[in-house]
Amino acid sequence: MDIHEYQAKKIFRHVGIPILKGGVAYTGAEAVRVANKFETPNGWVVKAQIYTPMRGQGFFREKEAGSKSGIRYAKTRKAVQKETEAMLGKHLITPLTSIGGQEVKKVYIEEKVNISETYALEIYIDFSAEKVFVTAQNTTPGIKARSIKQELDLQKNLTPSRATKIATRIGMKRGHIKKTAKILQAMYEIFKNYAAFRVEINPLVITSTNSLVALDGKIVFDPDAVGNYKEIAEMHDREDESLNEIKARLNNFRYVKLNGNIGCITNGSGLSMATLDLLHAYGGTPSCILDLGGEPTKEIVSNALKTILSEPDIEGVLINIFGGSARCDIVAEGLVAAAKEISDGIPIVVRIEGTNDQIGCRILFESGLPFIVKQSMDDAVRTIIQSVQEIM
Amino acid sequence: MSIIANQKTKVICQGILTPQGLHHTEQALAYGTNIIAGIATGRGGEEILKVPLFNSLTEAVFYQKPDVSVIYASPSQAPVEIKAAIEAEIPWIICTTERIPVHEILKIKSILKKSKSRLIGPAAPGIITAGECKLGTMPAHLFETGSVGIMSRSSSVMYEALQQLKKKGLGVSTCVALGAYPILGTSFVDIMELFGRDKKTKAVLLIGEIGGMFEQNLAAYYAKLKRRKPLISYVAGSFVPEKTYMGNIGAIVLSEEEKTSYKNKVLREAGSVIINSPNRIGDVVFKTLSKIG
Known about the structure:
The structure holds 2 protein chains of 2 kinds. By secondary structure, chain A is α+β, with helices and mostly antiparallel strands.
């Protein structure tokens, strides 16, 4: 689970990591109010708040946003307002966003500083190695990069002497070594206390006035752990959630939006992926995939089909269920309930196999509704692709 | 023969009185699984489904000497149960619990390394040895006896594979669903090693998916084997958009190496038969088995 830069900085401040003065804004006027709160000799920086990194290397999809990136300098309060308004509501495309980019819904206004040295600190889980690492690096341009990578033991703390050694080894400027060691310890405290995947400060800078600050920061949390920390769980905003994503969350099914014309309902993440594989193999294009999970109830199935049918670009529905723990008769009942309410001629191909499949098929037949029932995944996928092509 | 468990394997259940624990214990007993104890604090001496209950794990282990423990517990309780089972030196621990925080599993992995136990999971659907034994949450009626060993990260594609094998008249020896999770107690390499020694298993079907290095590690291991059984692989998720979560935090492509195409490439180079499309699992396994006679 991601949080925004301004939220990460709030956590940083709480554990004593130095950050600059700043504040979040949702409108141009608000941005000016934030800028008015603190004096700054060098002006301000207006930073787009999206979850994807590399905002400084990004560009906007819309022309009105101008040609600058997602991180912009503003010398005057008027410029703060102008840059804020230019970015809000526009889509920022970075090397790490999807092609369409991510909509900017808020910006962070921060005091501008002149940078003399830059460093990068990171504590993260390496999933392949199944270990926790700390990395530190001197990233100041022109300096031969000195970096260090060490394994950390989750059962232990990062001692002051070890943290000091790391800071010394990367060539941290004298007078800032102890402070850097404290920052590393504080990062590990956040990492451990919130069972995070990653805590990163990049860059950590020494300013021209010789102060050490975290200029940008990122914290990624474990979605399975944040439930234990209410204050963190609430940070992840759902402003980007579409109506169908909200429906999916409320109904406890998983929903992934794609860009074709066939809506898919499956059960299990593996079968969802396999269904996508087969659709593509036969030349079909999925519009979205909805995973019912282990043991769906009749209501969940019914809500799932209604959700899929509400997609504007849908031209056919493929239901590929293998009844392991899921019962095919319950799936069939749910499908019938939803299809009775909505019938707009969109072909619905159903493959239900496994536990209670015969009862399930009978329920579908006896409903009198125009379900196209197929006996295998292969048959079902070919049929839905054909049906969609016939309509077109 | 089979791997990890057969009809004689002594099984205990941690969390036997949870709804899931009770349901699957009942199903497992009906399948013939040798369940010899359940842990239920304060109910020691009683029986449930004719399975004797013990107040503590230590007590159950002392009297019953289990080979396997199956854990049904909440995400917060499961790490405690796993650690207790490791401390009691139970050889195989199967944890069915989903959504355990990764930090907890990292801590458990470091304890496991110094222990006598092996963990399947977390988030493991479990193990079924056809006709003999059911450990975990998979529906046993789908499993016909035969000579194919299956190891999978996903249970749903395993069911699909079983159905396709059944239509070809093929059955399975032991099927292991390792768990939908980014860090696993037991890897494909460990299971392949066991299948290699199992007389009943003639060929191994690997069902992998995008994300992680599990399939790549298996390829490296398999490539070095001198005498080996045929390996047939299907890796799901060729068409999942990058950085998209498909239901579990392990199945996500964050680097080129975690893609299906890369996994298929290294598996093929190691000598595995590759299935590109999930409707072909039955056919390809059938053909491979016919070749070895």
